[in-house]
Amino acid sequence: MLHRPLLPLALLCAALCVATPSAVAAGRGDARAFAKATLAFDLARGNAIGRAERRGDTRRRNALGCLDTLRAAPAERREELFGLYVAWVSAGYFAEDEPIFTRWVRSLKRVSTSDPALRRARISLGRQLEVARRTYGQGRRFCSPVVAWAQAGWSDAATPAPVRRLRELKARAGSARPAAGVNAAAGVLRSSGGEGGKLAASVLREGIDEPDERVIQGDDPIVALLADGI
Fold it and tell me: Which one, of 177, 37, 89, 169, lies nearest residue 29 by Cα?
């Protein structure tokens, strides 16, 4: 039930809604510090691209060892095998990126701010990092669980643990609400984040993940095999 305010609306706004000049200046300082930490993260990740690519390529080559097994997989298993493969290759990139993501989240926590959007964005990024750790922590082997599954006739009972974990994560992601605060925080950075605010806003929107366009390469024979018809 809604209650009428005890004070006229104009007086309430005068008391509660109007930011003082010092509060506005403090808010801009918070946004600039947030943007600075985000731009530092973006630079560090950019500097690590070559090393991350090499880790991803190593995993791609290792997975070719069970290409014949993948070719023999029934059609109803290919989508999950594709998801497992993407997670496996992404884990190579993430092994390089995880320390950089972690430093970013920690640096944002050190920014003292009362802005609710920035505070929610920090929480959201921390959660994204935990999800990425669970998603890309799928073990050290790709072919071993795939071959074991094939030898067991691709049965549901023999579904490898990494595939079961990905199923669980997918179910949770399907019921999750959109990342709270990130869009609003990006708006704060664009308007008050200083010279690099727009770029920082774009980086913030991307969040913590290994993007498909980086991992899924058109000349990858496993991608061509498993993604066909999905």
Answer: 37
pLDDT tens, per residue, the chain with 230 residues: 434 344 343 333 333 333 334 334 444 689 999 999 999 999 999 999 999 999 999 999 999 999 999 999 999 999 999 999 999 999 999 999 999 999 999 999 999 999 999 999 999 999 999 999 999 986 789 999 999 999 999 999 999 999 999 999 888 875 555 565 699 999 999 999 999 999 999 999 999 999 988 999 989 999 999 998 67
Measured between alpha carbons, how far is 91 from 79 in angstroms, rounded to an integer? 18
Q: Is the pTM of this model over 0.90?
A: no
* Measured CA angle at 81 (ends 75, 85), to 5 deg: 145
CB 132 within 8 A of CB 101: yes
* Residue 225: count of CB within 10 angstroms of its CB: 16
User: Which of 43, 30, 143 lies closest to 84 in space, CA to CA?
Assistant: 143
